[in-house]
Design brief:
The chain has helices spanning 35-38, 75-81, 100-113, 126-138, 153-161, 173-186, 198-204, 206-215, 230-244, 264-271, 296-305, 315-329, 335-347, 366-370, 383-391, and strands spanning 2-5, 11-13, 28-31, 70-73, 85-90, 118-122, 141-147, 165-169, 190-192, 221-225, 253-259, 309-313, 353-358. With 392 residues, the protein is of the alpha/beta class. It binds ligand AN7.
């Protein structure tokens, strides 16, 4: 295994700490040697079931039983949205309630193997919650930079309770990201665990492996919300590796959903803008409130190479989709995670089998639900008042 630049193909040893290519500044990815694809054996459960295709799988692991999340068949919602076989991959089932745990178990395992005692990230919430938990598990120091006032309460509570040093940046996620990159590049003792780190994405690719294990074949399309765009890139990498290993014979179309006012990748693909960036990104799906996604070149490649697409959905559509999934299928996901359902409702997808990646648990962000017009009732502590309230 080695690290390779996706732009100029320069290579680096696996244990060299570098977050981007020293030659051209491009994004790095972990490349598996050909022997890994010969006859991969998958044993056990969760992310490390796929250890033979992961860096760090051969040593001691920092784990909280991540992965092995539910793949829920949703016939009622599927029929309403015109999809024959609709599945939700419910990443809220992970130990800290989001898909980030898949990446953190690998990222923190790798950090410890390299000898780091401090890890850091910028976060819209879930990355910080997950990193804080895995750092605690590993006995490491965790530094998280968050956009002040713009992260969901549940996520902030998680970062705090796991003992991370939380710095609220008076700016947005993109400011926090810029600062934490500078901090970890200047200070050799701090290991950066944002999704620019290719080891994290290795863990996240296991979502594709699990979907194929569950369905016996790849779906026709996968729809994922995009923020920093690491996840859609990682999932695509997982499918392409299974194809290399001759475990699957075709690849799914990768479809990205962004929030209307935080949609740099949608804009980039549509208008061929020079930069993939929007200023002042805004959405109530705070997880994906990101204007300058670091992984955009990987995501654009995943969408183009797979024959996929990307489109935007409004905050109202996101909230409606969140309710619908909760009420029609019993799955409570956070707003960003409902974006793929909103996408299906608005655009539809011509495909028989579709997997929507629902990235985080709904309880992360109760405010997003409670902010809506109250549909609760109130009564005096008497039977008469209760009956009146129920009939009102
Ligand atoms: C629920 O925590 O970026 O496109 O700092 O929490 O891989 O960035 C979170 C992202 C989707 C987008 N859904 O994933 C962070 C952060 C949820 C998320 C995304 C995030 P990427």
């Amino acid at each position: 295994m080695l690290q390779r630049c996706i732009a100029c193909e320069a290579t680096y040893p696996l244990d060299q700490v570098c977050y981007t290519c020293a030659a051209c500044g491009g994004l790095l990815e972990v490349r598996l040697g050909a022997e890994r694809f010969a006859d991969p054996r998958f044993e056990g459960r969760g992310v490390w079931r796929y250890a033979s295709m992961l860096p760090g799988g051969d040593g001691e692991r920092v784990s909280l039983r991540e992965g092995d999340t539910g793949l829920y068949r949703c016939d009622r919602l599927g029929a309403a949205l015109g999809v024959k076989n609709l599945y939700i991959k419910n990443e809220g089932d992970n130990p800290t309630g989001s898909f980030k745990d898949r990446g953190m178990t690998v990222g923190v395992t790798w950090a410890r193997r390299l000898g780091f005692k401090t890890v850091a990230c910028a976060s819209t919430g879930n990355t910080s919650a997950s990193m804080a938990a895995f750092a605690a598990r590993a006995g490491m120091r965790a530094i998280v930079l968050i956009p002040d006032g713009k992260i969901a309460m549940g996520k902030l509570a998680q970062a705090i309770v796991h003992g991370a040093e939380v710095v609220r940046i008076r700016g947005d996620f993109d400011d926090a990201m810029r600062l934490v990159r500078e901090l970890s590049e200047a200070d050799g003792a701090i290991y950066l665990l944002n999704s620019i780190n290719p080891f994290r994405l290795e863990g996240q690719k296991t979502l594709a492996f699990e979907v194929v294990d569950s369905l016996g074949a790849p779906p026709d399309a996968v729809i994922a919300p995009m923020g920093n765009a690491g996840n859609i890139s990682a999932i695509w990498k997982g499918f392409t590796e299974l194809e290399c290993a001759r475990r699957i014979e075709r690849l799914p179309r990768m479809i990205g959903a962004q929030a209307e006012h935080a949609a740099p990748i949608v804009r980039y693909l549509r208008e061929s803008t020079q930069e993939c960036r929007v200023a002042n990104a805004e959405t109530l799906a705070t997880a994906i409130r990101i204007g300058a996604p670091v992984n955009w070149p990987k995501a654009v490649a995943a969408i183009r190479d797979s024959g996929g697409e990307a489109n935007l959905v409004t905050d109202d559509e996101i909230i409606a989709a969140q309710r619908r999934l909760a009420r029609e299928e019993g799955l409570f996901v956070e707003p960003a995670s409902a974006a793929p359902i909103a996408y299906l409702a608005r655009y539809g997808v011509t495909a028989e089998t579709v997997v929507c990646v629902c990235t985080g648990h709904g309880l992360k962000d109760p405010d997003a639900v409670l902010r809506m017009p109250a549909d609760t009732k109130v009564a005096e502590p008497t039977m008469a008042s209760l009956r009146a309230a129920l009939e009102a």
